[in-house]
Amino acid sequence: MTSFPWLTTLIIFPILASLVVPILPDKDGRTVRWYALIVGLIDFALMVYTFANNYDIHSDRLQLVESYTWIPQIDLRWSVGVDGLSMPLVILTGFITTLAILAAWPVTFKPKLFYFLILLMYGGQIAVFAVQDMLLFFLVWELELIPVYLFLAIWGGKKRLYASTKFILYTAGGSLFILVAALAMGFYGDTISFDMRTLAAKDYTLNFQLFMYAGLLIAYGVKLPIIPLHTWLPDAHGEATAPVHMLLAGILLKMGGYALIRMNAGMLPDAHATFAPVLIVLGVVNIVYAALTSFAQRNLKRKIAYSSISHMGFVLIGIASFTDLGLSGALLQMVSHGLIGASLFFLVGSTYDRTHTLMLDEMGGVGQKMKKIFAMFVACSMASLALPGMSGFVAELMVFVGFATSDAYNLQFKVIMTLIAAVGVILTPIYLLSMLREIFYGAENKELVEHEELVDAEPREVFIIACLLVPIIGVGFYPKLLTQIYDSTTTSMTAHLRDSVPTIAHKQSNPVAIGKFQQAPKIVKTVNS
């Protein structure tokens, strides 16, 4: 069965299944939601089976590779494969999307269209992490834009048209840089190819790499998001429904981090050496600025949205650390935040369904009537503020230690950046704990407590949060559950970054960051097949 097209099946199955949704005999949405849930479970189960039986976690090579000719004139192929960078994110996609389908159970407005879009998006998101052709990557990257736009425009809040328009302008505008970079890199040199391994092996000039890196950094910086390209995210989260929140926080933001590692660092290593100090600074700005902004928010959704932006700053620092530990921490942070962000936003949606308000000033005193929701909110907030024993703590610690022990940066730069980033780490528990106090045990809003139907969590909601907390706590106590999947790949990637750029001068002083890179003889790049 090793020759079976596993990855193609995982991608195509939910897309084909979505085409059946419009013809299902269903009036009230009951049939279609069960159908979507079954499709999600089947694809996730098939995903687990595929990787359990056909993926070697000890290999750093691309596995489950499939390649089929599409447009031979320009060597455009349907090419897919996974390694340690992408396999955990494919699993995360299946897990979060299946839970998002269950979270969408109360959807009654245009349910067929909703579940059609969520299944279509399911296949597109898996494809983003699996495709190995850069032009094909651009196409599947674009595939998820329209479902999210429609989710916001049709099922969003009062400002849904503004939020959806802003989302499509930012993300579609950023995607143009991917297309330009794909074409420029594909036609560079004597051969025309969009295969990522072929592109990584081309001998680009440094100036060309810098231009390509800058363009891709903008494209993926929008999705991550990197400040100041972040403003679409709080607006999108402010108007989205709970299942869309889960997809945005759990998967979409990780697409940007993954692409930065796969393309910017993996395919343009010389430019990565030049931009690495910039990534460190941007990561620190993300952590501190977004934490301060979150601290000031009175809207619950926007507060958690800025918290997500803050946590993604650790991904940038890990990518630019030039250490195995830092890069491993960045990957762990992406998976960890995918779980934590999805859980927090789901609870925000559940709370809104009961209180019908998102303003912290209008909440208060609901803890006595919503004890289960309060308990779940506390557990997920503890994970977000990096409580020891939770996955967030391990990820952030690995990034900090990886950066602090990196020999690519001088001591002064590392101390300054670490101290500034620590401010954001200190602010996180302050704004999260104060949020919990205001919602559940703040000054009681008598009108809210007496007139709203503040029922506690139902079994479906408890089940969703339990499913998310199990891996959060499991990875927190035993990180090797996850890190062993990609250790060989991150080790190989770090070695590639350090060996493919001019050697690091340990003893030369440099007023900023990345030591001073001495010019070394050109090294022929090798790419794992």
From TrEMBL:
GO terms for cellular component: endomembrane system; plasma membrane-derived thylakoid membrane. It comes from Chamaesiphon minutus (strain ATCC 27169 / PCC 6605). NCBIfam families: NDH_I_M, PRK02546.1, PRK12561.1. It is found in: Cellular thylakoid membrane; Endomembrane system; Membrane. This is NAD(P)H-quinone oxidoreductase chain 4. The keyword Ribonucleoprotein does not apply. Residues 132-419 form the NADH:quinone oxidoreductase/Mrp antiporter transmembrane domain. Keywords: Membrane, NAD, NADP, Plastoquinone, Quinone, Thylakoid, Translocase, Transmembrane, Transmembrane helix. Its EC number is 7.1.1.-. GO terms for biological process: ATP synthesis coupled electron transport; electron transport coupled proton transport. Belongs to the complex I subunit 4 family. It catalyses: a plastoquinone + NADH + (n+1) H(+)(in) = a plastoquinol + NAD(+) + n H(+)(out); a plastoquinone + NADPH + (n+1) H(+)(in) = a plastoquinol + NADP(+) + n H(+)(out). NDH-1 shuttles electrons from NAD(P)H, via FMN and iron-sulfur (Fe-S) centers, to quinones in the respiratory chain. The immediate electron acceptor for the enzyme in this species is believed to be plastoquinone. Couples the redox reaction to proton translocation (for every two electrons transferred, four hydrogen ions are translocated across the cytoplasmic membrane), and thus conserves the redox energy in a proton gradient. GO terms for molecular function: NADH dehydrogenase (ubiquinone) activity; NADH dehydrogenase activity; oxidoreductase activity, acting on NAD(P)H, quinone or similar compound as acceptor; ubiquinone binding. It is a multi-pass membrane protein. The chain crosses the membrane at residues 6-25, 32-52, 85-106, 113-130, 136-155, 167-188, 208-230, 242-261, 273-292, 304-322, 334-352, 373-395, 415-436. It comes from the Bacteria. The gene is ndhD. Its main location: membrane. InterPro entries: NADH_Q_OxRdtase_chain4, NADH_Q_OxRdtase_chainM/4, NADH_UbQ_OxRdtase, ND/Mrp_TM.
